[in-house]
Amino acid sequence: MTDVTLYHWEPNANSGKPMLALFEKGVAFDSHYLDLLNFDQHRPDYLAVNPLGTIPAMTHGKLVLTESTAIMEYVDEAFDGPRLMPADPVDQWRTRWWMKFMDQWLAPSFSMIGWSVFVGPSVRQKDPAELEAAIDRIPMPERRVAWRKAINGAFSAEEMTESQRRVALGIGYLEQALGQREWLASDEYGLADINGFNLAYAMPLSQPQLCNDELTPNIMRWLRAIYARPATRACWALGRTDLARRISLLESEPA
Ligand SMILES: N[C@@H](CCC(=O)N[C@@H](CS)C(=O)NCC(=O)O)C(=O)O
């Protein structure tokens, strides 16, 4: 029993961000796994923690924290361990620039693609009446829309094309930045890298025509370096689905 509990799904996207920050800081926490594909995040016991019904959430004593990037910043400030926000003001600005770019611009596009190719197909075969009841329990109307689109394969061609355009642009930005310095926002590993890795780790598999050893050697070096860190290994050990097994590509040497 610790005084920190993290409510999370896979070590991936929003859930993976505070998980990895906690492991990097060496903060002991109780892991409370919620199966997103089983709609655990909309059940009353979790809604009592986060009434919005989205993952992740973290409790620290009586304090309840939501929003993955804000939780990472809290973890960095509230606990001992290596500093994850750089000390230099310009590096701090760059860290926050990247986190905003990823959260507001890239993550929704990755999410739409992921919900279309993974989440929708993973739940579609369930009983339709059960699915409809599960969707009706979702507190946020926009999440109900996303679930229906994922289940019915109804993201429009325009939406998917725009997401793909944003992902291609993001890959270009990442490759350029990582050609200039070892880590995304400064010379030290930090919050921007944790945020970016959780969003981008699967790019060599999901976007092989855009992200590979030949076209984006700097992104590949960066992903491999983050994956090799003990904290990332510990974090990924908490994964239960195929998402956690997809990473094996990063265990290989450059082609
Ligand atoms: N801005 C929030 C987004 C949280 C969020 O939407 N999480 C997704 C999983 S990555 C979720 O809970 N989806 C469940 C649902 O929509 O039912 C954050 O960064 O924590």
Automatic annotation (TrEMBL):
Coiled coil feature spans: none
Ranges of residues in domain GST C-terminal: 88-255
Matches recorded under PROSITE patterns: GST_CTER, GST_NTER
The GST N-terminal domain, residue ranges: 2-83
Domain of life (superkingdom): Bacteria
Matching Pfam families: GST_C (PF00043), GST_N (PF02798)
CDD domains to which the protein is assigned, alphabetical: GST_N_family (cd00570)
Family: Belongs to the GST superfamily.
Official protein name in the record: Glutathione S-transferase family protein
